[in-house]
Amino acid sequence: MKSSDSPSPIGLVAGWGSFPVEVAQQIVGDGGRVCCVAIKGHASTDLESICDHVKWMGVGKIGGHIRYFQRRGVQQVTMAGKLFKSDILFHGSVWLKHLPDWTAIKTFGPHLMGRNRDSRDDNLLMAVTNAYSNGRMTVCAATDFAPELLVKQGLLSGSKPSAKLQTDIDSGWQVAKQMGGMDIGQTITIKDGTVIAVEAIEGTDACIERTGQLCRRGGWTLVKVSKPDQDMRFDVPTIGPQTVQSVRDAGGTAIAIEADLTILVDRERTLQLAQQAGITIVAIDSEQIASNAARAAA
Question: Is the alpha carbon torsion for 235, 240, 242, 245 positive or negative?
Fold first, then answer.
């Protein structure tokens, strides 16, 4: 374990993937300290060699998370990494499987039980944010601590999009933005102007796998965008090596992501894999999409 005399460590709630690891590394590299709640069944053990202290806890122990951070003097908390929502909510009884503590029941109960239940991501994550606020902690965006993970506009790998590919990207962008606005998902797949699959609770990798099953010819494009008015504290669109591998295995040939609002983890390996697989990755923004639409209409 690493230690430091600096005050006010950053509290990190770590889910699955390399994103939490990279956030922790950046905080420590900048001279800060990290106290981490590592979600059981999700987080990487690599966090134990980076953070000042790691506490392995279940996703339903919100009260325990808060008390742990309070004991450690944490004033700012950030959340990073994927939680497998379908496993948490819909594989058996959420209450029996995850044994939530009383704070979790108060936090999630109104959203998961009763006639007016609503378990959309934004509602659940805002409830968690409010719980931390009640514990006198501020929830911050992980990109506040690791801004370099946000991808900049431009061609990242592969060839410049052809006119046909750009048309698919432009069309898919509009659909993905609408899906995000309805809090359904932030990813779609498209080929020849036809949307093949839309991400929902199953997540991006499952959406990609389903696309490969539906489009055996391959040659399709993945479009991943932020939600309108994206809250950068949580649910920020992310791609990494596994995304590229999944797209390659399922026959996809291009990935379009939103510049300045998408996290690119393990950048060097991700782009190397894309180059080897011949997959184009391009980061674009809404202004570029609008400009393309204006030219098409002229």
Answer: positive
